[in-house]
Amino acid sequence: MKKQWSTIKEGIIRRKKVIMTVSIASVLLFGGAAGTAVYAVNKGNISEDEAVKMISEKLGGEVTQFEKDWDQPMTYEMTVKTKEGYQDVDVDAAKGEILSLEMEDDDDDDDDMSTQQAVEAAKISSDQAEKIALKAVDGQVTDVELDSENGTLVYELEIKQGLKEYDVVVDATTGKVLKNQLDD
Hints:
By secondary structure, this protein is an alpha+beta fold. The protein has three domains: 1-43; 45-105, Nuclear Transport Factor 2, Chain: A (Roll); 122-184, Nuclear Transport Factor 2, Chain: A (Roll), CATH 3.10.450. 39% of the residues lie in helices and 35% in strands. It has four helices and eight strands. It has helices at residues 2-42, 48-59, 115-121, 126-136, and strands spanning 62-69, 75-82, 85-92, 98-103, 140-149, 152-161, 164-171, 177-182. The strands form two sheets. It has a four-stranded antiparallel beta sheet with strand order 1-2-3-4. Strands 5-6-7-8 form a four-stranded antiparallel beta sheet, with helices on one face. A hairpin with a 5-residue loop joins strand 7 (164-171) and strand 8. It is elongated and about 90 Å long.
């Protein structure tokens, strides 16, 4: 009987060792893959701060709005306040090259606010809106836009949480979350 128990114990110990080895190998494999993916996405990209500084210096103005577009190639979309007015700029995040530069036209629609009017009317910054939205939905902000919706100035944010994506709308005057919805 002792021999049977000894054989059973040895079998259990062997199985535990195999399970532990497979578990550790899986963690290392998936962890390495995740790290490689993060590195690949950010490889060669200039930082957001570097992009803002570079564009501010090049155009001689202040970046009033910033958005990261995760499409490939990844770009930084900015609105820059210069002496001439507001300019929309798209910058290649990898090379730091200006992809497009366009002067904002304030004569589009009388119903729409110009970027200048919107920035001046907003009582909270896009950074504050991000913090407010992240309290509502824990995740990573992938898009922020300042917009006028039904006469109310709002920040529209997209937040990625794992495989889910949420649309969060924050009132740019009060900081109140107006919408928090899972994107279909």
